[in-house]
TrEMBL record:
This is MHD2 domain-containing protein. It comes from the Eukaryota. InterPro entries: Munc13_dom-2 (IPR014772), PATROL1_C (IPR057984), unc-13_homologue (IPR008528). Transmembrane segments: none annotated. It holds the Pfam family TPR_PATROL1. Residues 92-207 form the MHD2 domain.
Length: 252
């Protein structure tokens, strides 16, 4: 894990060098401006570093997202994408994933001491976890069969995951993902958990009522495809016949 964070340390060093160079250059130029104002027309010479600062910020953000995706979709592929909720949510919940995450986030905290950068990396990891969570629920393959009662486990696990990433210190201050950011990232999953709790027949009726919302209809179709009751199977079969093929539902 430490090796994966080396590029972040390089960017952190570049941030420090840019800030130091910008400060010293600005100070020198201000002195020169006072001595010979006719040669220096710009009141804020450090503006020449704005482009560099923007590029470094974008690079840091992109690298944090790449690391988050690597941690979740590669390092945690087996416990998260392949094993979570198998054979059922009640028998394989999020706690195994959290134990694996704890080890990796501990390394991030040790290797990235600066809070803004650490917060950015941890937030990217949480975003990747939310994406993986949604994939498990909607595209988890034929081995994962959910019932409306499973929504309770999913809601509880989502809260555990969010609380894990917010992680407050003894004073109650967040040490990981800012609380408001965590709420925004979790919001789509909470809506998904709410839909999971709806019985199949009511879910079918809801699907018919949101004809203009393609994303919502697709989500409901994925949920119904992950169920094993007679009502959902009949509906999925009807959809397949209407399409003239098997339902085009992506799975992992």
């Amino acid at each position: 894990i430490a090796d994966q964070l080396v590029p972040l340390h390089d960017l952190l060093h570049l941030h420090s060098e840019r800030a130091s160079l910008g400060s010293s250059t600005g100070s020198s130029t201000r002195h020169a401006t006072l001595a010979r104002p006719e040669r220096y027309g710009r009141p804020e010479p450090t503006d020449i570093f704005l482009k560099t600062r923007r590029i470094l910020a974008e690079s840091t953000r992109s690298l944090a997202d790449i690391l988050g995706a690597k941690f979740v979709f590669a390092d945690l592929r087996t416990p998260f994408l392949l094993q979570l909720y198998l054979p059922s949510p009640s028998q394989s919940d999020i706690r195994t994933v959290l134990r694996e995450l704890n080890e990796r986030l501990g390394a991030v905290v040790r290797c990235v001491p600066r809070r803004p950068l650490r917060e950015q990396v941890v937030t990217s990891i949480f975003k990747a976890c939310a994406q993986a969570f949604e994939i498990v629920l909607l595209h988890g393959g034929p081995r994962r069969i959910f019932t409306p009662d499973d929504a309770n486990v999913v809601s509880r696990d989502l809260k555990l995951l969010q609380d894990f990433f917010v992680a407050r210190d003894a004073s109650g201050l967040p040490q990981g993902v800012p609380a408001l950011d965590a709420e925004d990232i979790s919001k789509p999953l909470r809506r998904l958990a709410h839909l999971m709790a709806i019985p199949s027949q009511s879910l079918i009726e809801h699907e018919a009522a949101v004809m203009d919302d393609g994303d919502q209809r697709q989500m409901i179709a994925q949920l119904l495809a992950r169920r094993g009751d007679v009502v959902s199977k009949r509906w999925s079969g009807k959809q397949a016949r209407q399409l003239g093929a098997h339902p085009t539902l992506r799975t992992i």
